[in-house]
Amino acid sequence: MRVAIAGAGLAGLACAKYLTDAGHTPIVLESRDVLGGLVAAWKDKDGDWYETGLHAFFGAYPNMLQMLKELGIEDRLQWKEHTLIFNQPEKPGTLSRFDVPDIPAPFNVIASILRNNDMLTWEQKIRFAIGLFPAVVRGQKYVEQMDKYSFLEWLSRHGVGERVSSDVFIAACKALTFINPEEVSATILLTALNRFLQERYGSKIAFLDGSPTERLCQPIVDYVTQRGGEVRLNAPLKEIVLNDDGSVKHFAIRGLNGAPDYIETADLFVSAMSVDVLKAILPTSWKKIEYFQKLDGLEGVPVINLHLWFDRKLTDIDQLLFSRSPLLSVYADMSNTCREYANPDRSMLELVLAPAKDWIDKSDEEIIKATIAELKKLFPEDLGGENPATLLKYHVVKTPKSVYKATPGRQEYRPAQVSPIGNFYLSGSYTMQRYLGSMEGAVLSGKLTAQAIAEAHSAFQSSSMQTLTRPPATNAATA
Ligand SMILES: Cc1cc2nc3c(=O)[nH]c(=O)nc-3n(C[C@H](O)[C@H](O)[C@H](O)COP(=O)(O)OP(=O)(O)OC[C@H]3O[C@@H](n4cnc5c(N)ncnc54)[C@H](O)[C@@H]3O)c2cc1C
Q: 426: helix, coil or strand?
């Protein structure tokens, strides 16, 4: 079957990959001139990469890891020491580590928490462990039920004091969802903690060895095109044109640079665009259908990604760091963490600014000024002393609507990949799958769409489709 997919983010590309495995012919239509959506990256005039987001991969990403293996590129992930590192704002320039020993889960994570006395008191550790007990025993079902609470509400229901949320979980919430614990659904943190507690290497972090566009997305495109599929850039979906019965007749694609609009016909159609774009171009007659009405409950959250090049090395730490700054979220010195960005003499800090709602409309200069003021607290010797490092250049990448905003109650609005329209499917990390708004969630959603198409329209079942890493049956909320 010929399947037209709008959007070449990870969900659209993964969907295309698994459709080719199932013997179908995907045509991916991407509006921009760059692959990857939220993982897109660009080279500047000096040949330096800058990205939409600082992206960390986790051991608890089974579908991403399997896909990389199937593409023969799993060696592109650079695995780091098994540890989570937090800055200590009250002691500028110092770090607190949760070192995870190489023993079976959940004892490895428990040991890392018990051994860290900088950030949690014994009373807080015990209360938190008791609070987590139902999540460990009752699994994902309990985790989904907690979507009615914000994470802060969940913590206070379990008697865990304010300090825990201010010390550890603000950093975790900002890193996972770009919002603070009082806004974020408890399901998000509990899902992540559950995976980390159940998988020995679940919380182990890896960085890609270069830009996601070249090192992750391009191999998927090569795989798809070598098997008869197509990935077309500069091909924005303008309209979903319907038959009289409400099914999709064709995609109308906007012609760019004076070229006329054109029609893309196919047997089946997939939207792998962000939820905000889909809502904007949804056909009028579909707006009466409950499945599509629910999309109104979802909206992308703003986030800003920053890149700062300095004239000297600020750190030799080869890992993701949680800044615990009110302005910033996670950051890394990419000159240490990423092979293609390596530089033994100069640092390139890549940082996520979140929550970004008050900053998204500010100028790049204002954002960088505020960032440098925060960085002086993280690197007091190199940026705050008498001989501070010089900022050579910077790039600011703003995304006003990124992953869906994971506030309480959103789970029930996340749609299944199979829509009520017979020849139309959805993919995207916002669709229902257990890995939330992440790269793993995007890949899994694309795979679930391809699997649903393969089941409904069998061409042939390939081995990689048979080894699909499905969510466990206990997860009632997954497709
Ligand atoms: C700053 C930042 C940091 C992040 N950090 C991490 C991390 O550390 N770990 C992690 O796992 N995840 C992280 N994420 C989340 C992750 O990047 C996303 O969940 C994932 O990439 C989403 O993929 P997607 O394919 O679902 O959507 P998208 O990437 O949004 O893809 C949608 C695609 O549709 C295209 N499109 C839009 N309109 C049209 C149209 N009209 N016609 C055709 N195409 C169209 C877009 O251009 C885009 O390519 C981060 C995201 C950001 C922004």
A: strand
Helix (H, G, I), strand (E, B) or coil at 251: strand
Q: How far is Cα 178 from Cα 359, in angstroms, rounded to an integer?
A: 13
The pLDDT of residue 163: 58
Helix (H, G, I), strand (E, B) or coil at 304: strand
Mutational pocket test of ligand 1: of 80, 274, 367, the residue with most ligand atoms within 8 Å of the beta carbon: 274
- Please identify which residue in the block is written with the tokens 């939409």: 52
Answer yes or no: pTM beyond 0.70: yes
Domains, the chain? 2-40+62-71+211-299+405-466 (3.50.50.60), 90-201 (no CATH), 303-399 (3.90.660.50)
Parts of the chain with a pLDDT under 50: 461-463, 466-479
Please give the structure tokens belonging to residue 200: 């020995």
Pairing of strands 262-264, 49-51: unpaired
- Quick check: CB of 28 below 6 Å from ligand 1? no
58 DSSP 8-state letter: E
387 alpha carbon to ligand 1 midpoint, in Å? 40
